[in-house]
């Protein structure tokens, strides 16, 4: 991400583990020979399974540490095609227009703090997709029925300035580890339709966070208009 | 509902059919001999199945026409206990404090136009419930991924003055038939916790509207604090 004035900008792009699995709906939009871009690929948790299916996969992440992890776990597996892992900023992707058939953002937007960057990222995904290409997004939903998350959204609002965002601390050191955002359906839908996509598929789901909490989740597929 | 200054107040309380079925989770909160209040009971679609289970059921609705329908469909079925159907305003229920073990609002709040009345209705349900009594709510959720509903919410906002509310017209006459509200999770949760309840159960669901559209839905159980 580009640098921001807010104090936690340094932690954006760090390795934020997640337990959200790739939803099988993605295979409705993939096909033999298709080219897939995994945006915010982290340790390759999504890129590698897609490569094992035989697809041509590129994974980008701003964090070189997780890219090394992705490369080494790739070596230990029997990929038909080795994914191309590259350092890259999701707001300025290092690819030409209309390169990919499918783009994937698996629990990635939750780590993007600013609304403006989220919009830039979706427009950039749109740019590198071919016409009628698909953008698959799986991400966390605001979970107001959970007292834990309700209180986090409310208590952290003074700092985050955005409803649904909250601060997560390192359990050992007590230091601020990262800021995350949970989306409303309206937010995710408008993020897509205002930045070049039509909503083609939408599912409410339940995800498990890295700390083991059950929260709302969305699986969304947008089609480039 | 009590009279309101808005122009559609006259249509509130009319017979608004729905296809939302009673969720089986309710039977986790009922028990032999329990007393159930069905608020906005309409034609008895919920009261009668509950009475067939042997529970002592009271159904209230402001609309006498639908109450007659409830009474006659009750006669044609073999209820162990005949529900008591009574005309009543959900904001001023004709029952003493702490009368019921369980209260039910099945696709009822969607028909209540004003936020203030919704809060009054929840407080009133709380009043007539026994301590630790349960309020079951099933209602429609805002469905932003549907282009049809997205456009209705946005286009009708100038008239309804509340996001998620929309106007429904009679398909034959073209006249305004009713105003309905679709909720956000946050709205429903705060409606409960600000008016005497803790959220005990929450489920995202998919409902079918009377016009056959698939929309988001919520099944929520609150516990009187």
Word description of this protein:
2 copies of one chain form a homodimer. Helix content of chain A is 24%, strand content 30%. The first copy, chain A, has helices at 47-52, 64-75, 115-128, 147-160, 185-193; strands at 35-39, 56-61, 84-87, 100-106, 129-140, 165-169, 176-181, 197-208, 214-224. In chain A, the strands form 2 sheets. Chain A has a 7-stranded mixed sheet with strand order 3-2-1-4-5-9-8, sandwiched between helices. In chain A, strands 6-7 form a two-stranded antiparallel sheet. In chain A, strand 8 and strand 9 (214-224) form a beta hairpin. Chain A is globular, with a radius of gyration of 17 Å. At the A-B interface, helix 5 and strand 8 of A face helix 5 and strand 8 of B. Chains A, B: InterPro entries: Methyltransf_11 (IPR013216), SAM-dependent_MTases_sf (IPR029063). Chains A, B: GO terms for molecular function: S-adenosylmethionine-dependent methyltransferase activity. Chains A, B: Residues 37-137 form the Methyltransferase type domain. Chains A, B: This is Class I SAM-dependent methyltransferase.
